[in-house]
């Protein structure tokens, strides 16, 4: 959803040195303002250098909205949801991430693909003004189901809600993406940047995104994993598995990418969760 900022090595070193000797973030921001930096940009720069969530900087400057709901992180080795066993072979704390094996059955994966196939269109992303746009960074085709659109969709949404402790109505509609060889989703954050002009519009319903679940509906013959370049992790795309990650509005370690499919194809279902109920025209 956003581009990364360029920070000179001198500025980076100055921020690190200033905080190392005991000055807090508000003091660093004040000094930067005195030196002619734009306050909005300063917050992004300081967040990037100190690897802090942007939201934390808003809190330190008194601009934070009241907190919304947070997901409960599933714990290894396995979780049972309504009799459905989900294995957790990999856990990471920063970013907060879990690999979830067996979140979907083979049949659920196959059914989702067949339901989505006739409705695919070039995938869109939300631009800085809150409008859905064709994005060169995302070359796949996709579609959205509305909340609880079909019994299968509703069942999966309920499973995720129980697993993560966040009601179904905090979810955006399930998105299905289809990638062919060479198609990818370049590195991005799923949370919305509070510094972007469209932030208010994008978060008017539901508030900030707090977590994502990328579910793999098939196993690509080669390539197509989900990479987290800040921590050097690539999650293999395997039918029925998922990667869950939570970012609480601004965690830069949650940068991730859908790597190019090298052979075969890749199908995923993505669920994005908001901190507050997300109103759609869906039947629930
Ligand atoms: O294709 C992937 O592995 C990642 C998809 C993704 O980042 C998203 O849907 O937000
Ligand atoms: Fe993403």
From TrEMBL:
It comes from the Bacteria. Keywords: Dioxygenase, Iron, Metal-binding, Oxidoreductase, Vitamin C. Residues 170-275 form the Fe2OG dioxygenase domain. InterPro entries: Oxoglu/Fe-dep_dioxygenase_dom (IPR005123), P4HA-like (IPR045054), Pro_4_hyd_alph (IPR006620), Pro_4_hyd_alph_FE2OG_OXY (IPR044862). Pfam families: 2OG-FeII_Oxy_3. Its cofactor is L-ascorbate. The keyword rRNA processing does not apply. The keyword Iron applies. This is Fe2OG dioxygenase domain-containing protein. The lineage of its organism: Bacteria, Pseudomonadati, Pseudomonadota, Gammaproteobacteria, Lysobacterales.
């Amino acid at each position: 959803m956003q581009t990364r900022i360029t920070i000179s090595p001198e500025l980076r070193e100055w921020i690190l040195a200033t905080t190392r000797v005991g000055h807090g973030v508000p003091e660093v921001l004040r000094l930067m303002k005195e030196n002619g930096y734009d306050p909005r940009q300063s917050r992004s720069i300081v967040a990037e250098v100190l690897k802090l969530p942007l939201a934390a900087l808003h809190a330190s400057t008194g601009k934070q909205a009241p907190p919304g709901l947070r997901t409960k992180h599933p714990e290894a080795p396995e979780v049972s949801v309504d009799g459905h066993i989900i294995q957790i072979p990999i856990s990471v704390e920063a970013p907060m991430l879990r690999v979830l094996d067996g979140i979907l059955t083979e049949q659920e994966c196959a059914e989702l693909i067949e339901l989505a196939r006739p409705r695919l269109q070039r995938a869109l992303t939300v631009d800085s003004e809150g409008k859905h746009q064709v994005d060169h960074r995302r070359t796949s085709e996709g579609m959205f189901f509305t909340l609880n659109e079909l019994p299968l969709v509703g069942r999966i949404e309920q499973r995720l809600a129980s697993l993560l402790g966040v009601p179904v109505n905090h979810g955006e509609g399930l998105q299905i993406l289809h990638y062919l060889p060479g198609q990818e989703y370049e590195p991005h954050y799923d949370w919305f940047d509070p510094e972007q002009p469209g932030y208010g519009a994008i978060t008017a319903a539901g508030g900030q995104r707090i977590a994502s679940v990328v579910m793999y509906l098939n196993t690509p013959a080669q390539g197509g994993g989900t990479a987290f370049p800040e921590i050097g992790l690539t999650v293999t795309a395997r039918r029925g598995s998922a990667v869950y990650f939570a970012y609480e509005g601004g965690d830069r370690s949650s940068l991730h990418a859908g790597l190019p499919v090298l052979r075969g194809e890749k199908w995923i279902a993505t669920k994005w969760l908001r901190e507050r109920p997300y109103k759609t025209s869906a039947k629930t």
